[in-house]
Each structure stands twice: as C-alpha cells, then as structure tokens.
Amino acid sequence: MSAGTRADLLALDAETLAALANRGLVKRAAREVDAGDGPVPALDPDGTLRGTCPDGSTVALPPGTGLDGGTCSCGAPGVCRHRIALVLAHQRTATGAPGSSPGPGTSDSSPGPGAPESSQEPGTPAWSPGALDDEALTAAVGARAVAAARRTLERGYTARLHHARPDASQPVAELAACTVRFPVPGELGFAVTDAAQDRRGEMIALAVWAFRAADGRPTVALGGRSEPDPGTPPVLDAAQRSALDTALDLTRELLLDGAVHAGPVLTAAFHRVRDELAARSLHWLAGVLADLIGQLDAYAARAADHRPEETALLLAELHARHRATAHSGASPSEVLGVRETAETPLRRVRLTALGCRVRGTATARSAEVYLAHPAAGTVLVLRRSWDLPADGTPPTGHALGARRIAGHRLAALATGNVVSESAVRSAARELGLGRGRIAATTVSPVGTAWTDLPAPLLLTDLDARLRSLEGRPPRLIRARIAAESVHVVELSAVEDVRYDAAEQRLEDAVRDAAGNPATLAATYDPACPGALDTLAAALASGTVTHVSATVGRVAGRTVLEPVALLAGTAVVVPDLAPGGGAPPPPPRPPPGPPPPPPPASPRPSPRSPTPPTADCATRTGPPSPAWSAPPTGWAAAAWPPPPNCCAPSATRCAAATRKPPSAAGRTPPSGSPSRPRRTGRPSATGESGAGESGAAPTVRRSNPAVGGPSETVRCLITVGMISPMGGVITASEPSWTTPFAGLSPRDLHRLITMLRREGADAVRRGRP
C-alpha cells in the first residue's frame, strides 16, 4: 500500500457505494470524474481527505467514519454526489500513481484496528468484525445505538453468519430484522445494512457481537435465558405463558366440538388471543391462529377453500410448538418466534422479482409476488387480495396483471427489479410497500439479474441443496417463513413434456446445471386458464435457461413447481399470461363436394330398450379417472375420448342421437303405473338403476326430436359426471363449468332443467 492513500476508501467498490448512497448518484459522480470535473483530493496529516469541486462545494471525509460522517458544503441531506466523487477521484489518483511517495501534507492511513496487518496483501487471513472491541464500536455507531442493542441482547436474538473466506472477503450477518455486511476490513462506518437509518447503528452492534461470540460457527444465539426450566417453555414470561395457555384451551375446545359447532363467540376469542400473541412477540403462534381463523371463516361461509386436513394440521402445529419449547435443544426463535421483530423498515432495498402466483376462490382472488433480496439471501413475498363482485365475470390472472400495487402494475412488479425506500419486512418475510412522493418505489426490467443472484437463491445443484436441508426440524416446529423453498434453478436440459389428463397436470423432465434430474410440474387452475399453454410453449421454445420454483422432494423425486421462467432475456410468468384455455376450433373441411353421409345404424328391436354403445356397455366399474375433466388449450389434442361414447366436452353421446324405439312398442316395468302424456312438453318414462352386472342404467325417452333428459342422464352416468346412486351435479361458479364439466353454462342450465322434469331436487347453493 502506498503512502498518502486511505485503505478504507480504496476498498469501496461500485456496489458498496451504491448501497451507501444510490446507484444514480454513483453514475453521475463517475461521469463527472471521467470528464475531469471531479474534485482534486488532498490528504491531511490526520488522515482527513479533502477536496474542492468545480461548483465550489468543499468535501471532507475524516478517518474512522463512513461517508455519512463526512461534511460537504452543498447542503444536500445524506450522502451527496460530491462525497462519492471525492472517493472515486482518490481511487483514480491512487491507481494512476501506485508507487508515488507521500507529498507534503499527506500521511499513510493504515487499515482499521480490527483488520489484519497486511489485509490488502494476497494470502492474508480473513478478518472478523468480532475483533473490534466495544470502545471502537461505540465510536463508530454511537452510545445511544449501543444502548439500544444491549436491550435487544437482554431479550435475546439469533444470527446466521457468513464468515470471510478467500473467495468471499466480506463478512455477512443475517439477523432477524435485516442483513449487515462489512465490506471494509477493520472499519464499521462503512457497514452496509438494509435496516432503516434510525436502527442502523443498533443492527451493526448486534452483528459485531454475533461474530465475537460465534468463534467460526455459522449460527449463534445470544442473550435471553440460557438455562431452560424443565416443564416451562424457555424465555416466556408470565404474560406470554398465559396467552399460550389460552390459545391451547381454545384449540382443545375446537378439537372436541369440531368446526361445525364453532360459532362467532369462539372465532372472536381466537381473534383476541391472536392479537395478544402477536403483541407478546410470539409471532409463529400468532400466525398459526391466523390461518386457523381463516379456515373457520371459510367453513362458516361454506366456501370451497375450507380444508379439514389443513385445520387438523394447524391444531397439531400449535400443540407441537408448545411441546417443543420444553426441549433443551429447541431454539425459542425457531419454534415460537419470540426473538423476531414484528416489522422492520428497510432502507433503500433492492429486490429482484421471481414471478407471481395467482390463486382464486368463489369470492376472492389473491396474488403473491416473490422478490429475491440478494443482500440478505432470502425471498420476500408481497401479497394482495381482491374481493370479487357479486355479479360479473371473475377476473383471470391476466386481468389481475393490470391491477396496481404501490403505483405499479402487478405484471411489472412480477417481472422487474424493484428499488424501494418505503418497504417494510415482517417476521414471516412478507413485504409491504408504501406509497408516497418522498419514499418512492421504482421498477425496471429484470433483464438477466437472475444469473447474478448469490447462492442459495440461485441453485445449480438441486441434490446438494436438498441434502443440506435433511437435518432441518419438521415443518410443524420450523420458523414460519413465507417462501423458504422458492429458488431460481439453472437448467441444462428440457427433455420430455407430458400431460396427465386425470390430474390436469403438466409435467416436464428437466435437468439442472449439475445434470441432476427433476420434474417440473404445474396443475391447471381456473383462475389462470392460460398458464399451462404459456408454460408448455415456453418449454418447447428451447430458450428457457432458468426457472423460479418451489423446490421439494416428493416420493423420492425432486419436484419443481414453477413460478416464472427466464427465456432469453424475458421473464415469463404463466399465471399472468393471457389465454382462455379453450380447445382450438376444429379445422375447416377442404373445398369440394360434401362427403357422403355415414351409413345408418341398424334400428333396434321394438321389444328391446335402446342398448348403450359398445364402450359404454363394457364399462362395469367406476369411470376412468382420466375422464374426470377435459384438458384445455394445447392439451386438448391429447384428449382421447372413446370413439362411440361421450366425452365431457359433448352434451350427448352417440346413443342420444339414435332414434329410440316406438312408444307403442314399450312395456312399462312391472308394478309401475303408466303416466298420461302431457301436452306442450315431452313426457319421459324410465327404467331404474344398474343391474347386478354393474352396467350403466338405461333410461329411455319418448321424444327423439328434443334429445330428452333420459339419454343425457344415461350418458352422464357413464362418463362419471353423476353417480348411479344419488347422483349430484355441482358447479360452484359459472367459470368452472366448461373446464370441469365440458358444458357451457347454457347447456348445464338446460341439463338441470331436464333433470328437474324427472323429479330431481331443486338447485341450491352449498359446498359439495
């Protein structure tokens, strides 16, 4: 290191300067220095760097402090471009004259006290912020910040540490509230954190103490009560234990009485206890009760999104977390969330969008935007929901892409780089964006930012990542992180695309950059009818290099549930893609004379009922699962309906169009009185039920011109839309009719009208 230079300022790169100020100021200052309009740096004997800019502004950067500790006569709040220009000019001067001797009025400014003596030489040992004592810490962040950090230390906190290595020279501490990075060895004034300015010093102090206590370990827990009391949850005071006991009593009552007896009084009690748990910093328990309240509300509203198995899992999770706290090796922050901060304001956070997922119910639509935070190595979730109007067509995912969040379209947020000065992060890593003129949020195209994400946000070896997670605690007692399994996976091959008509599921065999096989799987959702079409088209294009997905292992297979894809330089979000998911229209016949009509089928005997078609008659058991619902869009070409029977996309089978025997040749079943023929609408008589052979029952009609209800009922029983015994036709909303039943809403209405003429129950709303 040459004399007359500042080692701390030479260690600042463009990314660190952008984090300390903003990227726009760094670019402007760099242009001024390149054009020769920058300040001329001069180093005082005490190590203070001074300079005068062409516009008359004078800048001074004393040693031992960051850029915000310097002074500038321009009067701009915070770090101005003149300070950045002085740093860049000093770096250019030192680079241009590496062997120059110190001139008059200069001094050799060595690295800080916590850095190795030769930290700038290759092969030196990595430094640790824990080498700095409390005196240097107080001088860097102030006594008030240290006092606030000591109060947090008394409550206890947990930190995940990334120690400096030859390939990663910057120590990083991941705290519950934010991430702290130390880019300059031995200097705390240049520490970079995404916490708000009023809490910056406190977070730096907590990170320094964590490195001091870690002694090379990747995770450390400090403060709180270290000696657990058997039978009593650790680090819980009397108020917290009381709130937890109340929550357990309410869940026992719900478990004994069931959701059917959970009235508004019990739900109100759950609301009250949830708020109390959140106020007592028991965030994971409060999250469990919030999800449980959502399930009870769905059951009370008879909504289809109520899941009994989900309710049972939430009850088990609450009791599992309570029992795990008595274990000596349990981490209170991991099990209960007691050391998590409810909300943390983030200072000028930079996020990279990883796509969006859209979900829908009969009454609402919701969107989840996944945003990677490279500085913290985590994925944040931005959630929004919209209630559906009582009348009108529910919006699809493509229509929701035009909705605005914090002044920006949902589609832009899901495919862009987000820079915000008004972001707030919750304990569950959920993100909130404010809106204002001072604290603005800007969005720019994401480009190829996915390829620059650090690990573990960007995965190149799926097997190695999943092996590293095998020692995690079970999900019931893990921290409730919203998007803990969302990653960007680099792909090396897209092999086989197939469609499972039974599950309405698109599966694709892919390989990651290391050659490990995985299955990319996506299921059809009526709220996003064009998702599968867009996903299949992107995979078939051969341009997909990365995919953001939920990574997991199912039945020994690595399964990726895609959120978005990087195809070239464009980010494709299937849930926001246009398209109605309708099958393509049939091809037009070639010009020329019309083809000859098909030969007429032989007329059955008047004494015998109309026989079912060959494929219908041979089905003696329940219908094939692949017939449960038709595919849509591109997958309609793979739909293989039997040649002589009806598929769900047809209103009647071939037998329904065949002329029935004459009414005069019929013989009513034994013991059934004949009914007089009514005028104005067709009359129908039928033969009931399936016989011992299990074949579909045959119901005859009397008016072939109308295509009566009896043949329709027989066809629906054959393909499994209704049951031969106590059949029920359900349709939660009109938009679900075509994807799941293959009928237009008008055809379904006509079908219900025909069934009611035969004595079916009246139409009513309810959960199937």
> What gross morphology would you assign?
globular
- Beta-strand portion reads 15-25%
Question: Would you count the extended β strands for me?
Answer: 26
Oligomer: single chain
CA-atom Rg in angstroms: 34 Å
Identify the strand order in the major beta sheet.
Answer: 10-17-18-13-12-11-16-19
Mean pLDDT: 75
The main pleated sheet reads as: 8 strands, mixed
Helix content: 25-40%
Distance, first to last CA:
77 Å
Number of helices: 20
Keywords:
768 residues, alpha+beta, 8-stranded mixed sheet, 5-stranded antiparallel sheet, 20 helices, 27% helix, globular, zinc-finger, Znf_SWIM, zinc, metal-binding
Describe the structure.
The chain has 768 residues and is of the alpha+beta class. The chain is 27% helix and 19% strand. The chain is built from 20 helices and 26 strands. Strands 10-17-18-13-12-11-16-19 form an eight-stranded mixed β-sheet. A hairpin with a 2-residue loop joins strand 24 (544-554) and strand 25. The termini are far apart.
